[in-house]
Amino acid sequence: MPVKPKLGQNFLHDAEAIQHIAASIGDLSNRTVVEIGPGRGSITGALAARASHVLAVELDHDLALRLRVHFPPDRVTVVERDVLHFDFETACKDFPEAFPSGNDRLLVVGNLPYGITSQILLKLAASHAALDRAVLMVQREVADRVTAQPGSRDYGLLSVTVQIYGPAQRLFTLPPSAFTPPPDVHSTVFRWRFAPRFAELGVEEATFLRFVRQCFAQKRKTLANNLRAAGVQPAAVAAALSQATIAPQARAEALPIESFAALWRCLEAKGATSLSEAAPQSEPA
pTM of the prediction? Predict the structure, then answer.
């Protein structure tokens, strides 16, 4: 079956890596797994051998047909759909045959297409209430950003956006030779446990995420300059930074999530969190 480059198809064929990915999601007994982009089914088979059921979400019509022929429907349900249009929160109702043990929070596994990686990560974050944990394979540089710590070169908007929804841990990296056809980049597998921190940090989800986007709007600018560009009065910025014990010349990439939350709370108390939406919704993958 020919590869369709426009769909970002790079099929994993490394048998050891396939088993490692399936094992990395944890105990699958009596659990349902959603697999994003199953492709030719190499990881699907390893998951189906461990899980109660696999929901394989595949956009490519030809591959979806192949998967339906190869796997029994009582173990694998093939959903021919763009994952960006897949509703994780209603999966139990939409596919009752895949949930013999009830409405558990979903496990997710996927070799994500490079071109829409950030969009898929944001989709998963928005669906966090229905999700337990995910093991995802992405371009190595994206994994570097997702798992980066404050002050590092790779720490930025994507790091904060992912990590506010739960811890992300790098697992292992694969060379291009592990795939057919080999991509031009290395790929890294990471595990993401969904445990949102909004209540713990005392911030409101939508407003806080908009605030963080604005903090990173211009990476070369200081945090104070980005907030002023978003419409916050200079006096309010200076007072909030002082109250949150953040240096006046600090840049967003130096701050841990806890400091962003402290700054948001200070600005919220002053009624200064209604920022203009000038920043992008996500970083490019």
Answer: 0.90
Contacts of 255 (CB under 8 A, 6+ apart): 150, 215, 223, 246, 263
| pLDDT reading at 278 higher than 50 | no
Beta bridge partners of residue 174, listed in sequence order:
187
Residues 6+ apart with CB under 8 A from 238: 224, 248
Please state the rounded mean pLDDT for residues 130-138.
97
Which single residue is written with the structure tokens 């992008």?
Answer: 280
Q: Are strands 76-80 and 168-174 parallel, antiparallel or unpaired?
A: unpaired
Per-residue model confidence as pLDDT tens digits over 41-85: 999 999 999 999 999 999 999 999 999 999 999 999 999 999 999
What's the Cα-to-Cα distance from 161 to each of 171, 194, 220, rounded to whole Å?
A: 20, 12, 19
Q: What confidence tens digit (pLDDT) does each residue in 82-105 have?
A: 999 999 999 999 999 898 776 679
Backbone region of residue 30 per phi and psi (left: phi > 0; alpha: psi in -120 to 50; beta: other values): left
| Ordered structural domains, the chain, with CATH | 5-196 (3.40.50.150), 200-269 (1.10.8.100)
Structure tokens of 63?
Answer: 């591959």
- What are the respective helix, strand and coil percentages of the chain, to the nearest 5? 45, 15, 40
- Residue-averaged pLDDT of the chain: 91
| Beta strands at 11-12 and 179-180: parallel, antiparallel or unpaired | antiparallel
Rounded CA gap, 21 and 271, in Å? 46
Residue 162 is encoded by which pair of tokens?
């992912």
